[in-house]
Design brief:
The protein is an alpha+beta fold. It has five helices and 23 strands. Strands 1, 2, 3, 4, 5, 9, 15, 18, 19, 20 and 22 form an eleven-stranded mixed β-sheet that branches. Strands 10, 11, 12, 13, 14 and 23 form a six-stranded antiparallel β-sheet that branches. It has a two-stranded antiparallel ribbon with strand order 6-7. β2 and β3 form a beta hairpin. It is elongated and about 120 Å long.
Length: 383
Amino acid sequence: MVRTSTPRPPAAASPSALQPGPSSTGRGWRHRALPAALLAVAGLALAACSSAAPVAEPEVPEPVTVTPTVEPSRAAAPEPVVPTVWPLTGVQTAEVANRPAVAVKVENTTVARPQSGLEAADVVWETIVEFEVSRLVAVYHSQVPEEVGPIRSVRPMDPLIVAPLRGLLAYSGGQPGILAEVRGSGVQSISHDQGAPGMYRVGFRSAPHNVYGTMSRWLEIADAEHSAPPAEQFAFALRPELATATASGSPASTLSFSLSAQSRPSWSWDGASGTWLRSEGSAPATSASGGRLSAVNVVSVTAPHPNSPFGAQGGAPVPTYGLVGEGEAVVATGGRTVPAIWRKAAADAPLQLFAADGSPVLLAPGNTWVELVPAGKGSLTVG
């Protein structure tokens, strides 16, 4: 007989069935226990998150601007170094002598050459007087030569030249009207005709070409109003290469002047000495000491040359120059020339030199000769 059996439902797992038991691998219990452990840990984490207080945002401080403290410099700014220079030459010196400028009216005819003391002048002005002859106004300050001459009479253009110096003017004499103009110019007169000390006649020349003078003696009699050094007349560069003509002028080797039918001075550039060498016509111009007359700067000033109210021998008119105003000029320095404009605001104001743009024309440190060219009659040829 065949027995059949009814399948039984699976029995509920007993507690012992949940315990780890042996397996063929020895690790079967871990596969059943790990998921439960992970679930337990995850549950604890969620519980902790749900029960913790919210985290506060961090406080951001307000921005603070800090200005650095800068200690002020206790040292004063250095003063610019301004060299001491002779006012009429621009040449540097340790000290400017406390003495006035002395202008001397010097003859320049053939019988008067060679003259004494011209090589020591700071500035020499060449003028044309009656009968178309040349006379010089030699101005001294940085040097005091032992002797100057021959000295001649004053002329109406002289007060215009020397008034800005506010110093001394030495001459042999003059017409009353011209003497009045000299007195009105503010300079102190040193006149041979009025018995001024330091003037005398020499024996090696004939009159009237023999009046000479001693400058040191004239300085001794300078009064209180005429004893101060002169103010600067022209503007000077600190160094020769900075002079206007040298820096920006046109090359030149000769300066040929026609001041009148009787006066044709010329100058030639000498690079070895750095000066212009003077000639009277074709003859080299020299001083009584034997040296060649020379100049660091030669300035050509073209100005009106009208007759003055004064007359000379035989009724010949005595000319003067119209030096108050402005006109054409040429400045020669360092073997070069540059055009310029001269201006003189008043009779007692210095004659100044300007470029076309209005800037001052700077001369090189050293002595200067000014050639006063009669407008419409005289000329300058640059070669």
